[in-house]
Structure to design on (106 residues):
């Protein structure tokens, strides 16, 4: 019985390590959006890296780093309504912007 528990523990550990590697490899290659409180690209900053929808809290300026997955920008929270802009490459703007959410398409 002790041998089966040891094998089960090793299997569980291998599964957890596989998930960690999978998650870190996706984050390392994902596109991201840095936003600042402003004015411009100054002061407090936040970074959005998650695939899917993220609400944007700061609107002073932004920098999108394209690493494969494109992103769509929305005027409403929760990625509701039609997207009003798309990023398929690097972009930076140190002026205020109106987008309230974005969807990184991983």
């Amino acid at each position: 019985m002790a041998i089966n528990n040891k094998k089960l523990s090793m299997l569980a550990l291998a599964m957890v390590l596989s998930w960690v590697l999978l998650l870190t490899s996706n984050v390392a290659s994902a596109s991201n959006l840095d936003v600042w409180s402003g004015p411009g690209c100054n002061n407090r900053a936040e970074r959005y890296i998650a695939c899917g929808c993220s609400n944007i809290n700061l609107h002073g300026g932004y920098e999108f780093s394209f690493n494969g997955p494109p992103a769509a920008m929305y005027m409403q929270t929760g990625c509701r309504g039609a997207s009003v802009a798309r990023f398929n490459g690097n972009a930076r703007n140190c002026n205020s912007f109106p987008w309230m959410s974005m969807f990184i398409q991983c």
Remarks:
- Residues 2-29 form the longest helix (28 residues).
- The chain is about 25% helix and 30% strand.
